[in-house]
Amino acid sequence: MKDLRKKFIKKAKRIVVKVGSAVVASGGDGTGGIFSRLADEIDEIRRTGRDVVIVSSGAIALGIEKLGIKGRPISIPERQAVAAVGQGSLMSRYEAAFSERGMRVAQVLLTHDDLGSRKRFLNARNTLLTLLGLGIVPIVNENDTVAVEEIKFGDNDELSALTTNLMEADLLVILSDIDGLFDRDPKKEPGARKIPLVEDVDGLRLDAFDSSAGRLGTGGIRSKIEAARKAAHFGAATVIANGNIPGILTGILGGDDHGTLFLPREDRLTSKKHWIAFSTRPSGRLFVDEGAKEAVIARGKSLLPSGIKGVDGTFDAGEVVHCVDAGGMEFARGVSNYSSAEIARIKGLKTKEVEAALGYKVYDEVIHRDNLVVL
Ligand code: GLU
């Protein structure tokens, strides 16, 4: 275990630290002590030459506190409004605590749609890398005014996983008010045992874990496992740990046995393939015959027009689409070189027949292997 921690944690150079609502609000007492603690620990970690990016929830939690509301609003627009009130408080607390230690911070608000567009994804990456280059600590949150994914079910867990790829980080630390992953719900069952290590996150049965969320956030353990899975596919390790324990971050980075460590997958996806698999929302479906499916899955081939039986949905060239078999089961996902209208005209054709059908030919492949992910 010590060796694994050394291999995957101590060597990490770029770390995404996700701070959950339950940590930010520190049990709702709003003393602000948590921000000083995070600043101290992150300062120490940065002094070891590592980059740190924070993904912080807490806009809603602090908005509730500021407005003096009892509990979390039920309607989504109300939560969005409360988040708009709280985001300023969240940033000013980080700003105050970090500047006291000579660190500068920057607010970065993202949506899943931003990250689903390759152009905006790369723009966001450039901005964040520039911030790191300037020695600034980026603090990312969902842009709750325009997007509701994390408010509804994520508490930024997914955003933290997508940020791990965005930043090409090698470690994701998810700080919440739980000590890690347990075999049963530790809040309900006193005999529950912590699982210190998950070697194969894809092998975990998600339905065995509670999906209900904490009092202040929306995440729950399932969305954290899901985040760890996404990070694992990008080749990053994840630690889920209790952010309310002083010294937790520096302890984790020092190789201490805190929380649950999820190992990365050895067959990691490239950043672009990870983006295709996890950050995008495919806009259509290609129905692929058995021969082409086999060629894609077993022989690593590109998808050619001849293997396509049908197309569903409306999309432009350059958009990500699902590749499904005759039964409608998705087996791959990739960036289409042709629009849905073009594919409707060239489906089933041999490569040499494409030009005659369209009057031009841009590519031989509908989806090139480099832009295709087998799921
Ligand atoms: N982005 C939201 C926040 O910062 C997510 C957390 C939640 O759903 O409570 O407050």
3D structure, described in words:
The protein is an alpha/beta fold and 375 residues long. The protein folds into 2 domains: 2-273, Carbamate kinase (3-Layer(aba) Sandwich); 282-374, PUA domain (Archaeosine Trna-guanine Transglycosylase, Chain: A, domain 4). Helix content is 39%, strand content 19%. Helix 3 packs across helix 5. The protein starts with a helix and ends with a strand. 47% of the residues are buried. The structure holds glutamic acid (GLU).
Question: Which descriptors apply to this entry?
Answer:
Carbamate kinase; 15 helices; 2 domains; binds glutamic acid; single chain; eight-stranded mixed beta sheet; Archaeosine Trna-guanine Transglycosylase, Chain: A, domain 4; five-stranded mixed beta sheet
- Structural class of the helix and strand makeup? alpha/beta
Instruction: Please give the order of strands in the largest beta sheet.
Output: 3-4-2-1-5-9-10-8
Task: Assign the CATH topology of the largest domain.
Answer: Carbamate kinase
The small molecules bound here are:
glutamic acid
Q: Under the CATH scheme, which class of the largest domain?
A: Alpha Beta
Beta content comes to 15-25%
- The CATH H-level superfamily of the largest domain is Acetylglutamate kinase-like
- How many strands in all? 15
Regarding quaternary structure, what we see is single chain
The outline comes out as: globular
End-to-end CA span = 30 Å
| Strand/helix succession | HEHHEHHEHHEHHEEEEHEHEHEHEEEHHE
Percent of residues in helices? 25-40%
